[in-house]
C-alpha cells in the first residue's frame, strides 16, 4: 500500500512539474539589427540554437541582419528578465561576417528562448548556416551554400552555386537555377529529399535511400551500373556537376524544369 501511495505521489509531482514547464504563456521580444560591409565573394556565417534562419541574396556589398529575440516564461516579468540574457556575438572582418546566438548563462528552468533571423547578403557570398532547432530558408543565392540543422527543414530556392545541406530530422528541398563546378550534396536521416534542376543541367547523379524510394521518372539520363528503387546512378545531359543525394528514412525525388 505504501509503495502504491509513493508511486501515485511521484506521478502527481511529475505531472505538476511538466504542467509548470509547459505553461510558458508570457512572451517578451525585441529586435537586434546590424549592417556590415562585406568584400566581394566574402563569407557570412550564422550559428543559431533555436529559431528560424532566412537568408536572401541581393545585389550590393552589405550584410543586413535583423534578428528577433524571443523569451517565453510563465510570467511577463520572467520573460522580460530572460530577454537581455540572449546574447548575439559578432566577429566581423572585411571578408567575413560571423554571428552566433549564445545560450543564456545559468540554469534555465520554466523558460524558453529563440532567435529568428532575417538576413540579406551579397548574392555572391559564401553562406554557412547552422542551427539545432529551426528551419533554414535560403533564396536567390549565387555563392556556395552550406546549411546544417538537427530538427528542422532546409529549403533553397533559385540557387546557382554549390549546395551542401544536412538535416537530421527534417526535409531537404532545393531548387537550383543553374549548376556550376561546385557539387550539390544533400543528406538527411529522417526526412525526404527533393531536388529540382534546370532541364539543361549537366550532372552526374548518385541517389541512395535506406527506407524509402527514389523517383527520377521525369529526368532523362543515362543510367550507370546496377539500379534499384533505393539506388540510382546516372549522367544527366552527358554528365557534369557531381550531385549526391542520401537519406535513411525518406524518399528522394529529382525533377527538372
Describe what you observe in this structure:
The protein has 257 residues and is mainly beta. The chain has 2 domains: 24-123, no CATH class; 135-257, no CATH class. The chain contains 2 helices and 21 strands. Strand 18 and strand 19 (231-236) form a beta hairpin. It is flat, with a radius of gyration of 22 Å.
What is the fold's blueprint, element by element?
Layout: H1 2-22, E1 26-37, E2 43-47, E3 53-58, E4 62-73, H2 76-82, E5 87-93, E6 96-102, E7 111-122, E8 126-133, E9 136-139, E10 145-151, E11 154-159, E12 163-169, E13 172-176, E14 184-190, E15 193-197, E16 203-211, E17 214-215, E18 221-223, E19 231-236, E20 241-249, E21 252-256
Parallel strand pairs: 2-6, 2-8, 3-7, 3-9, 8-10, 9-11, 10-12, 11-13, 12-14, 13-15, 14-20, 15-21, 16-20, 17-21
Antiparallel strand pairs: 1-4, 4-7, 5-6, 16-19, 18-19
Q: Which of globular, elongated, flat, extended, rod-shaped describes the shape?
A: flat
The share of residues in extended strands comes to: over 45%
Give the helix level as a range of percent: 10-25%
The spatial strand order of the largest sheet comes to 5-6-2-8-10-12-14-20-16-19-18
The largest sheet, given as strand count, sense and whether it forms a barrel, is: 11 strands, mixed
* Average of pLDDT: 91
CA-based gyration radius: 22 Å
Structural class determined from secondary elements: mainly beta
Distance between the termini: 70 Å
The unreliable regions are 1-21
What's the β-strand tally?
21
SSE topology string: HEEEEHEEEEEEEEEEEEEEEEE
Number of domains: 2
- Helical segment count: 2
